[in-house]
Fold this protein.
Amino acid sequence: MDRFLEHELVGAYTYRDFDRSADERAAMANRAAKKLAEQNARKLLILHAITIFCHGLFWGLRRGTMLNGRSMALYLFLTLPAIVIQSWLEVIGRPRYANGRVRRTGDDLGEKGLTEACCDVVYWTWVCLILAGFFGDWAWSFWVVNPIGVVVLLVRMTRNFRLGQ
């Protein structure tokens, strides 16, 4: 009977959670922080590598046609948001180390919501960049899907916020 009452008081915690020492709990937290730091570093490396590949492919395919001002303006204007977003993801997601230990893991880059929407903008910019490399400037018109997707996401988030979900 005492165990039942004690369980009601502690809620979702199990008895094993209270049996762990402070050192064990700190070690578990440190392992989780290291895992998140490794995931963030890996995701940032992949983002940067694919971005360099896509831009290199674009420039390789369009090497002779990028001399006119319209093409260069489209390229700069439509890739700039993805570059700014990647810089922001680098700042918030890059783990910081001090003396071989994780000092700051960074925000979780696999998180739903704003981080996911930002990654979607980067991914769609890659698609448009490759399409524009193969098919020319008219393929940049597919980039308009980005703002539409962001507006849909914001409407969904606002509705969920109002409904308390």
Confidence is low (pLDDT under 50) at residues 1-10. The radius of gyration is 23 Å. DSSP finds six helices and two strands in the chain.
